[in-house]
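User: Predict the full complex structure for these chains.
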Amino acid sequence: MEPASEPTGKPRRRRKEARPHEIIVAGLAEFAERGFAATRLEDVAARAGIVKGTIYRYFDSKEMLFEAALSSGIGSAFEALPEIVADYEGSTLDLLRLLVGRLYETLFTPEVELLARIIISEGQRFPAVAELYYRLLVGKGRDVLRRIMERGLARGELLPSPLSATPEALIGPVVMAIVWNTIFGRLDPIEPKRFLDAHLDLLEKALGHNG
Amino acid sequence: MEPASEPTGKPRRRRKEARPHEIIVAGLAEFAERGFAATRLEDVAARAGIVKGTIYRYFDSKEMLFEAALSSGIGSAFEALPEIVADYEGSTLDLLRLLVGRLYETLFTPEVELLARIIISEGQRFPAVAELYYRLLVGKGRDVLRRIMERGLARGELLPSPLSATPEALIGPVVMAIVWNTIFGRLDPIEPKRFLDAHLDLLEKALGHNG
Amino acid sequence: MEPASEPTGKPRRRRKEARPHEIIVAGLAEFAERGFAATRLEDVAARAGIVKGTIYRYFDSKEMLFEAALSSGIGSAFEALPEIVADYEGSTLDLLRLLVGRLYETLFTPEVELLARIIISEGQRFPAVAELYYRLLVGKGRDVLRRIMERGLARGELLPSPLSATPEALIGPVVMAIVWNTIFGRLDPIEPKRFLDAHLDLLEKALGHNG
Amino acid sequence: MEPASEPTGKPRRRRKEARPHEIIVAGLAEFAERGFAATRLEDVAARAGIVKGTIYRYFDSKEMLFEAALSSGIGSAFEALPEIVADYEGSTLDLLRLLVGRLYETLFTPEVELLARIIISEGQRFPAVAELYYRLLVGKGRDVLRRIMERGLARGELLPSPLSATPEALIGPVVMAIVWNTIFGRLDPIEPKRFLDAHLDLLEKALGHNG
DNA sequence: CATGAATGAGTCTTCATTCAT
DNA sequence: GATGAATGAAGACTCATTCAT
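Assistant: Here is the predicted structure of the six-chain assembly.
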């Protein structure tokens, strides 16, 4: 049982270190829902259980909070990939299957969808954010893809072709699924599993010929 | 008496018919650049060569203008497709090539890119707009794709598979290209031609097996 | 039957002389309903069956229209009274009865109520209007009242008293009735007839003692 | 480095408790002077020594401020009356004298005149306000009057008559005086004392017959 | 004369940001 | 550190007024 220490009913104050993170979480939710411009700091504060002014103790401006929030979310989702690719023994197709499977797992997660929503809708307006994501995530993914293709070519599994030169096309469907759900999700949502199956089917058909 | 100094303002133009369209064009540009919330009607007006107040003679509110602008842009890009599919004599692969080629032609156009930019970034926040585009465009495209697959199955060119059940995956790459350019275009733009080649290559590899 | 001359359906254009008056009538209605500041010239025009701009052909400004409208309404309701008083043969009480009866008849008329509504609500803000009404109407009424009292004193029907020195109090009830209906009419309207009876009763009790 | 010039604005006061009331007082003055529609929140703010935006911390809109201001002013001017009537031992005439005297005392007060001015001029446009005043003030007054008449009838001091059935007429003169001063006060003000004397004289003449 | 498009000066309202407590 | 009152700079929207047709 709790000691009857604080009769006012306020929830025990959280350890201060958590504050900025709570604000960021609240901000992420609001930014995803309304977009940067339409998000009110007051609502962010309310969601974080504090008052507007307090946000400024941790972030210099709305924009700073926005960027901090978006940066915070960048997981190391793909950190492990380069190594995996390097050490992988199986076929190119299997490697791609692995990668694509990971993508669906990673991206169709509530938190990541939130981030995706924001980047999709605000990315163009915030070059700094776009660059960050490009550097830390998307670009990495691209590199991995390229390395997979090079490996495939080197191993004789693939022949040089427009596709092997532009392998990004191979993950088009995931991107489409995310964006689709962001925009038309309310009307006609895409079921990730089903889409993943079709995607894998496509990969197999396209690359698995000589299996 | 006053000297015949410059009469206060510019001459009042009178374009009756053209005005609403001019405003819409200006609005589209501003909305694409800044997003709905951050767009200032004053800027739209300036771009249209008129004054803020004048917008209200034609549109009841900023939101009305936004929706009018987005509606106005919905071309009949895909109108002809159903017929084409119905009358087509060639292979499924060729039909898909045709469709995908059209998509690249249509979507990578300055005006359409503008619209795409807006829908991508604001679609989630304006259900009415999303629905409009779903009904008049995206849904149509989806239907055409499905019909193509059915036709392919009927003709014995395809076998039932996850991909034939979810053929949207086939156009994932175009969607990815558009979105990519919207967000990362400044950092590392996708060259549509190159991407189209990869996309066609992918289709051919995946569906042109028995060549 | 009408000749099929004007197929467009516009009502025959009124003789131009009527225009200003139609505008004034429309203005009166709007001003009474919304007050000067909240009245939109566009609504006045619509009610008069013309367009906003046309008002300016007849009136220099909204305020001019307002004053013109209020001036136009000043009937000669009391024009005849001085003479009547001068020629009257009966008792002071009867004379007052006559006057008060007239007041109720005159004031509880749709058009006059309209005017009253406007004067009550805007009189303080438009000194010119207040002065006009004071000069042409209210002041006249006051004079008549005074003359009636003088006559009564002279005829020995009244003795000098606070009331004979301030006879305006005698018509307080009518004023109250009008104002009451203007403000509380929707909640609990005063029925003029009933109020008139009470008013006459009051006069009789107060002045008809020794009859 | 900048010289220690005057720090941009005035020091931010912090009156927490007092603020809303200060705003209301300022609002009352402006509304009385210009009417609701023509009052600028900026002027209200200036008069209250704050900035426009601050008003919105306490009131949701101009209209809310208006209603709050009018509500705030409703004193309990007549609270005590019912009891007084119940306990009174003297004659009906004396009771009426007492009531009317009170009315003059209460109504001809700077603050009340302000309120009266507003209610007279805006009451018709704000049903909510009219109802409030009807419920809390005017209706109460009416009830008191009726009770006085009933009491008079019961005590045999009065006989049933149109006036006893509609005793509101008895206070017509006060209402007239207020309204008159509101509208014609600048041209020809009524002196309350003088009017009160006439009013009392009228009451006495009308009801004090049987000595 | 009438029209209605266009203007431009407001006015309300919102909100990021600051600051005294 | 946190609070919340206060600020001030916008920005949407309105409307009296003007003017080309």
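The first helix of chain C runs from residue 18 to 34.
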